[in-house]
TrEMBL record:
GO CC entries: cytoplasm
GO biological process: tRNA threonylcarbamoyladenosine modification
Name of the protein described by the UniProt record: tRNA N6-adenosine threonylcarbamoyltransferase
Residues annotated as binding substrate: L138, V139, S140, G141, G142, D171, G184, N291
Family: Belongs to the KAE1 / TsaD family.
Subcellular location field: Cytoplasm
Cofactor binding: number and manner: Binds 1 Fe(2+) ion per subunit.
Source lineage: Bacteria, Pseudomonadati, Pseudomonadota, Betaproteobacteria, Burkholderiales
Length: 360
């Protein structure tokens, strides 16, 4: 069962081919990615219309590259998967349109995939794949959730952010520090030179007794601190010029202190989820899962408690096509795909807003 997968929910065009034959964990045969980060950088964030147009430009050359890597013709593909949502409507429509058109031309089924299920299952492509059941910490640019995962398609939400996502907290703080977009990796890099105890930023909901998160207040706290360091008026606007008044050591200290605050909350809540479920396995997925401090602290805490922790490979933490093809493959192996071959439905079906809880 060869599955070609397309990811186009935001600012990465990803294409991949997996082999989901038999019952072994699906194997990646080819994988190509184009990130639009550079294109959007000038605007300080993703411009949806530009994103859609660029997906159109990239998707077919990337597909050719993936098939060349695998040494297979398009006709060898048995099913075509694409990200149905959540994401930007126009961007999703590109992946959906291309997937449906190709599937229709080949007479093969098309498989809509939930983007977060892709992230969630991405550690199955690592050298150390997890086993069910496990607790999952999904930390991406738009989501921060703790889940109990009992199998493919069996996801129970334990807690989630009530406002900003962890990735958003990294990105917004980075923006205030003049570190560009998306600022997570840049902030982590600057933090290496700083002191994590230089500034005491809030750890929201740390002792709330539930598994929810809140990161919106962190942005205000960082802004207040940056204004103080820049000798700006507390009631003044948040302009990109503020950070220019800071020296490199101050930026590094703020970066290290914010990162420490975000990571501490993520680690403590993950451990609380482990404790409340009684499970002994943790899976971390999504872009923030690439963060070195988060990995270091989770590894240390989990080792102490004899909890196994699994991550996606570093390059598969952020958006990619491999996780979409993989999720379709795992669904196929679990017998969860409808018999699309019997009556394939080729409609351009996207869901820009799509809670994982509504996934069957
Ligand atoms: P979603 O999956 O929720 O729709 P998304 O697809 O934009 O959102 P991802 O691609 O999973 O999110 O991750 C991108 C996020 O990960 C960004 O917020 C980025 O700053 C953050 N990120 C990536 N690498 C790191 C890192 N090393 N440290 C901290 N944050 C990081
Ligand atoms: Mg992205
Ligand atoms: Fe994502």
């Amino acid at each position: 069962m060869l599955i070609l997968g397309f990811e186009s929910s935001c600012d990465e065009t990803g294409v991949a081919l997996v082999d989901a034959s038999g019952s072994a964990v699906p194997r990646l045969l080819g994988h190509a990615l184009h990130s639009q980060i550079e294109m959007h950088q000038a605007y300080g964030g993703v411009v949806p219309e530009l994103a859609s147009r660029d997906h159109i430009r990239r998707v077919l050359p990337l597909t050719d590259a993936v098939l060349a890597q695998a040494g297979l013709p398009l006709s060898a593909v048995d099913a075509i998967a694409y990200t149905r949502g959540p994401g930007l409507a126009g961007a999703l429509l590109v992946g959906s349109g291309v997937a449906c058109a190709m599937a229709m031309a080949l007479g093969k089924p098309v498989v809509p995939v939930h983007h977060l299920e892709g992230h969630l299952l991405s550690p199955f492509l690592s050298a150390d794949p997890p086993e069910f059941p496990f607790v999952a910490l999904l930390v991406s640019g738009g989501h921060t959730q703790l889940m109990r995962v009992d199998g493919v398609g069996r996801y129970e939400l334990l807690g989630e952010t009530i406002d900003d996502a962890a990735g958003e907290a990294f990105d917004k703080s980075a923006k205030l520090l003049g570190l560009g977009y998306p600022g997570g990796p840049a902030l982590a890099k600057r933090a290496e030179q700083g002191s994590a105890t230089a500034y005491k930023f809030p750890r929201p909901l740390l002792h709330s007794g539930d598994l929810d998160f809140s990161f919106a207040g962190l942005k205000t706290a960082v802004l207040t601190q940056v204004k103080r360091l820049a000798h700006a008026r507390p009631e003044g606007p948040a302009t990109p010029q503020l950070a220019e008044a800071l020296d490199a050591a101050q930026i590094a200290d703020v970066a290290a202190s914010v990162q420490a605050a975000i990571v501490e909350v993520l680690v403590k809540k993950s451990l609380a989820a482990i404790e409340s479920t009684g499970l002994n396995r943790l899976v971390v997925a999504g872009g923030v899962g690439a963060n070195a401090l988060l990995r270091e602290q989770l590894n240390a805490a989990c080792q102490k408690r004899r909890v196994r922790v699994h991550y996606p490979e570093l390059h598969l933490c952020t958006d990619n096509g491999a996780m979409i093809a993989l999720a379709a493959g795992l669904r196929f192996q679990a017998g969860l795909l409808p018999d699309a071959a019997a009556a394939p439905a080729y409609h351009f079906d996207v869901r820009p807003r799509w809670p994982l809880s509504e996934l069957g």
